[in-house]
Amino acid sequence: MKNLRIWSLLCLIWMGVLAASAQDTGKEKISLGDAMPAITLSSEIYGKVTPADLKGKVVLVSLFATWCGPCQIELAEVQKTLWPKYKDNKDFKLLVIGREHTDAELKKYNERKKFSFPLYPDPKREVFSLFADQTIPRAYLFGKDGKLIHASIGYTKADFQELMADIEAALK
């Protein structure tokens, strides 16, 4: 009987740990109104992006991983809806960043996916860690003043529509 109680207690503790970790969406490191972290991206394919390149632009930072299901849905929507609408707008910059991926991995991934927007590597989570500790996909929209105006975790159609409206408003 004593062993059964110990076993039951251990199971309850373990279930609590699992439930807590499943609900953890990662610690936010930036909030609405905060300035965009100074990031530099380097890609052998797409070149280098520095903070100076982003100054005065509406910037969408999209953090993803190639193995992430919701990321795949979000990026497909970016390819279908967002990128065709804003790719030629000189006041807009899209930064799609592969968390823990190299240029070579992203090149191979894009050979399958055929995305027409640039994919930037973040093999050591150096950029990702400026925004959060975990959980993808994540989208951060910064206005022309460099301040955060929209943030989302995960992907829903409603969140994406809100993001599109926020981009449109920020570009006016």
Automatic annotation (TrEMBL):
<dbReference type="Pfam" id="PF00578">
    <property type="entry name" value="AhpC-TSA"/>
</dbReference>
<feature type="domain" description="Thioredoxin">
    <location>
        <begin position="30"/>
        <end position="172"/>
    </location>
</feature>
<keyword id="KW-0676">Redox-active center</keyword>
<dbReference type="InterPro" id="IPR036249">
    <property type="entry name" value="Thioredoxin-like_sf"/>
</dbReference>
<keyword id="KW-0732">Signal</keyword>
<dbReference type="InterPro" id="IPR050553">
    <property type="entry name" value="Thioredoxin_ResA/DsbE_sf"/>
</dbReference>
<dbReference type="InterPro" id="IPR017937">
    <property type="entry name" value="Thioredoxin_CS"/>
</dbReference>
<feature type="signal peptide">
    <location>
        <begin position="1"/>
        <end position="22"/>
    </location>
</feature>
<protein>
    <submittedName>
        <fullName>TlpA family protein disulfide reductase</fullName>
    </submittedName>
</protein>
<dbReference type="GO" id="GO:0016491">
    <property type="term" value="F:oxidoreductase activity"/>
</dbReference>
<dbReference type="InterPro" id="IPR000866">
    <property type="entry name" value="AhpC/TSA"/>
</dbReference>
<dbReference type="GO" id="GO:0016209">
    <property type="term" value="F:antioxidant activity"/>
</dbReference>
<dbReference type="InterPro" id="IPR013766">
    <property type="entry name" value="Thioredoxin_domain"/>
</dbReference>
